[in-house]
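Handoff note, outgoing to incoming analyst
You'll be picking up this chain. Sequence as last confirmed:
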Amino acid sequence: MISRPVPAGRPLVVHVVQHLKSGGAETFVRGLTSGLRRGGLDVRILSIYEDGLTASERADLGVPIVSLERRGRGDVAAFGRVVGALRALRPDVVHAHLHAGKYAGRIGSILAGVPSLVFTEHGDEAGGAVRAAVNRVLHARTTRFVVFSEHQRRAFAASEGVPLERVTVIPNGVATPPAAERADVRRELRIADDAFAAYLPARLSPQKNQSAALQAFAAAFESDPRARLVLAGTGQLEDALRAEAAALGLGERVSFLGFRDDAARLMRGMDAFLMPSLWERMPLALGEAMRAGLAVVTAPWDGHADFVRDGVTGVVATDGSAEAFARALERVRDGDVRARLAASARAFADEAFALETSVERHVALYAELVAQR
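Most recent structure output, in case you need it:
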């Protein structure tokens, strides 16, 4: 199970995830752990389910993975395997992520006697009295919590009953989007070189509010038949959104690309990044868009101001409605406005959201926890 012994005298950090397949949090964990490894930290990944990576992806990652291959909720023996794996690894710090890390990872760490336990709150999930009671117990045994913004820090501390000093702000680190020629991307997607192209890469779900984007685009660009709206992603609303696009008469002006493993690269061919979401924490795609030099148009989800300032690093709609989003979208039709917003957003994101910065802040957190033992 373990690829090699833990080096003596060097702290070991184990990140616990449910799997490593594509997704915002999973992408971040891969980037973070790879960066930690390159920086000389001894780091492993414990995947509760099958990790989901190909052999070449594992090789590129360069981080040893322990895959427990849980077979579903009925596989309760997986909890014992979590404890066994952590006892064998003997980590100094366990860093848990998402639902599986929040529960199986933290419970396993406590039972295995791990000295320091960190949990990153990537997003909200359904609650309930039983889950709240379990979290109260687990929160008391969690050494430190990581969130993405000061707004989230204060909200999390208040809602979860956790002291502020145990909640650390480390924004998601975002790698620079892969290089690509604008003309090549546009040729691939059949977008004219001088046409306006708006981009919305996200899971097709109620949270992401793509319906508002479709309606807003139809209204804001009614008189511009060459403008394009590009959606990348799959999800439960795909059929409904395709039907809505047809009903709006958008035809070939909207493209549904489905899942794309090069979604970040496609940004290089776009003019604006759309985020009509009803709620978010810190989506990686937002940081990628800023670092790629796109003008950002977003809904005012709770905490957005920590990332997007209206008229400075992007355009913020007055609310999440299609009408408000259309008015916001109108503001980036002007190329000079887009260029100014994009330049400001890129400068901000390169400093605040660089993956290297996130890696450094995590290293500092782990060093602090180990020193406190």
